[in-house]
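Task: fold both queries, return tokens.
Query 1:
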Amino acid sequence: MRRYTYTCCCIVLIFVLCFCKPSSIPVELPSILGLDKVIHLLMYLGTCGVMWTEYLLSHRSINVRRTALFAVIAPILMSIAIEVMQGTLTDFRGCDVGDVYANAVGVVLALLIPYGWWLCNRTKSTPADNSSSQ
């Protein structure tokens, strides 16, 4: 767990935000349709982005099975568990499948954004590479 300090902090923050009463949050959010889904997406995009960063900094190679479990399946299962707990353990929060979908989109984007960046940079050649081939 020492390698994933920031990831653990993000996960704790998600749990705190998901189980505190909305009235205890001092920030007044504007009432924009779907804003809560955007917030859910950003929470999981950020958390999984931090997770990917810590993973890549602490491993030389990527174990695809373990990475899929650790960086995709586990956050989505955590999201489902939180929603079920909100619906059953609190009287001030409800279980919302839309939140799970938004969280899953955030998880997938956290995977696709660095992968897309890697694909773009992998195919680009540097000026030094072009001059040596002439």
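Query 1 returned. Query 2:
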Amino acid sequence: MSPGEGLLLLVVLAALAWWWAGLRARETALRAAREATEREGLQLLDSAVVGGRVRTVRDASGRLQLNRHYRFEFSDDGLRRLEGEVRLRGRRVLGVTLAPWRQSDGEFDGRGAPTAEPDARMSAARVPPARWTVVRGGRHGRPGEAD
């Protein structure tokens, strides 16, 4: 085997390892999105997460790791599509962010602003703009607090 062939084989193996790690991270993100929506009584739409940003960061011990952000859609009433996001560092879930959703009593997810009157035809303009984080363990807060 020539050095050029060895280098090509190494590049192909590295690309395969990158692809495999991405598949495993996507499966972890989908599982986290499914668990968060089920825990809150919401419906995960399309049973899918879509990859977004990938960047490198250093962990507490100084090693480089990948931060991955995946987006997904969920519904509170079967009609509206709301956005959520899963953040991973390596294969560990950092948090799941959910847009405020409407509960059957007219309140927004118990942490957002209440509506004036329950109305199933609520427009997107009445949805509070803040996004909330649902982190493993049930702790809630603004995005970035859980990181």
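Both queries returned. Flag for query 2: The mean pLDDT is 75.
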